[in-house]
């Protein structure tokens, strides 16, 4: 795919449709490189309900790399990194290769607010109550038409506008996959039954009904999940009476549920965009992929899309990108999304109460008693096991590097500005004329797994070795020509 040459000067470098977690993080990543960003959010106010979402290990590492993790920890609750795959709960295996080996539960509106504040603090413009209604692109940029008729001009547009993405539809990008076969109701509400009686009833049913639970999330407030009677319109949230009916059908009681904080339904549809880029327009997050929420991967997948795309798009816009750099966004992220779709398909099968899936679930539960199997599935769900294809080389090539102790403190603190980083244990390597975009840390005592490591701005290992000539080749591959 040919990369367009971005040379004109519209009002903005990038317009982002959607200021959810993906759009807000992408805006911040672009602003680290002085890209002029406008984020358009169709909603005028935050959602009236407070949904708790979970940040997995890789997303927590991303937040640590940009100095955001402490802010998030102040608003969230940690729980162990276990029970992610099809809700099969096994002890946390030893040797999880992360300084953040836990799940952080955080209210989604809080997460969005913190990420939006981060982007705005870096200089991104955010406009609420602005919905994209049309787009046209040409050799010089993209014209975006809003629902009120206003027209805006940018060099690029990124659709981070969710599963029903207007940008994707306007592009005509196919979204093949499978429609929902089953629906599940989910919400948070008060209950009128004593906690010990709830626990006893739920424990008996959970042995076979894995799409059912009541879990306390606050004083007299429970998270409630129960299978729906059929497949409904997920654009319309269910009412409390539908929850009561389904709880009575499944558990023989409605547990006295009342006063909902939020109610929703989700299905098991799986869809993947045929392309992530058409010329100057790109897709990220749910606009590019949807799948069941089993394992809690969706929001995390979108954040990681943004983290992969931001520095690449910024390099392209600043004229510092190798000709194929922007193509690596789709080449790297689309296979990751396809794998997530497959593992959620597998998990949904394992949640079935039918005898066959129950037998497979039992066998997998036995296999997960092996630490290697348990660790593999946790790394799959939490995205710490991803290895991008950078060509032949050691197993570490293409993987993210965990946070390490280095001479200047913690490794991830050195990545806050979104630049590349050369970790040099030899004392004789150099980044030369790439020093305007790649930092260099000489640390002869560092506990590095190799003499020299080149990290991309997203923390993935782009080169391993001690030869300056091969290092220069990889600096050109990922960061453009020297002195550019």
TrEMBL record:
Q: Which Pfam families match?
A: FAD_binding_3, Rng_hyd_C
Cofactor(s), by name: FAD
MF terms (GO), sorted A to Z? FAD binding; oxidoreductase activity, acting on paired donors, with incorporation or reduction of molecular oxygen, NAD(P)H as one donor, and incorporation of one atom of oxygen
Sorted alphabetically, which keywords does the UniProt record give? FAD, Flavoprotein, Monooxygenase, Oxidoreductase
Q: Where is the FAD-binding domain?
A: 12-344
Q: Which PANTHER family match?
A: BINDING MONOOXYGENASE, PUTATIVE (JCVI)-RELATED, TRK SYSTEM POTASSIUM UPTAKE PROTEIN
Output this protein's name.
Monooxygenase
